[in-house]
Amino acid sequence: MADDVIRFSEPDVGEDEVAAAGRALLSGWITTGEECLALEAELAEFLGVDHVVAVSSCTAALEIAVAHLDLPRGSRIGIPTWTFVSTAMAAVHRGLVPVLLDVEADSMNLCPESLSAALHSSEGLDAVIAVHFAGIAVSETIHHLCSSAGVPLIEDAAHALGSTDFRGLVGGSGTAGCCYSFYATKNLTSAEGGAIATDDERLADFARSFRLHGLSKDAWARYRPDARTLDYDVVGDGLKANLPDVLAAVARVQLRRFNQMQTRRREIVTQYRRLLDNCPVRFVPAELNPNSADHLFVVILPHGADRAAIQADLKNRGIGTSVHFRPLHTFEWFATQGFGPGPSGLPVAGRLAERALSLPLHPRLSDSDVTRVCDALSTAIDSEHAA
User: Fold this and answer.
1) Whether residues 303 and 217 fall in one domain
2) Within this chain, do residues 121 and 64 fall inside the same structural domain, yes or no?
3) pTM of the predicted protein model
4) What range does the domain containing 360 cover?
5) Would you please indicate which residues are annotated as catalytic (active-site) residues?
6) What is the pLDDT of residues 270-296, one digit of tens each?
């Protein structure tokens, strides 16, 4: 890419990550082993939870959490329509029926009123997946509603490593698992990867087996130098979803640098809010959230603005943008499968679906980059209005 291009997302990796990957590659064991075990222990300590199980993606973590619920096929699982498709697919792959719920206008997180209506409808819900959108934890009310109804709550924390809520760091305490992503665009990256965090030993044991076809022992347990036996059994069904040591080694370096990278993200978010204060956009959330992981910086464009035209204008100026998210109910496949909205409908998501725009946010942005993005966005919006 040209030097003057501001990428929407750019991984903040350096020589330490390269060296860690190199050591793992030359260690004689490059798949799941000591590095993965060390990452799990370090993440558990960081999050303050009893167990972390590293997997190949957040999608895999979600599938594991859903599978552990052991719900009958056809069970109904509440999911915010404002999320990536993988959140719903984790339920679909286990034969469950996604019930699409609306979000709050301020945070784009799961709306308590929409959830309550679905929980108390004649069909009810058998489980819920809540998404901590853009690094902002869902409200405490969501937890209370699920608890009161006796419905398990899974946390999709793909955006939320480092987020805090009424429990402290978001990490699966009191829920049916908290699922993280280490994808290339995330605050901590290993290129691909994820993890499930929990205080539930049964879920952790299930996850370790499920991530490797339902086997009772992984390859490291069977073939490491001090292994006493090669015997193993199949204790259930499962996926191929383990995290290789090469990627775990990169993630361990990222975790050591995590607080530093988060500090830079907060500086960038603060600068965006200051420079765009007079621009006719609304921020998500409206006010700076001190507990956010600052994964995305999302603005809501003015009524009637042509988002595609604004994105094209910014692209022509060398600035990358994205959209988070196209709501699930707008995809043809979801409609054809009959995965519709809950009883309260989707008014907020429907109203904002064409107006949300994600601006570049990653630690490699300079202050001048942020200024350039803000100037370009303001100019693009002014040009759109003039047209």
Assistant:
1) no
2) yes
3) 0.96
4) 259-386
5) 186
6) 999 999 999 999 999 999 999 999 999
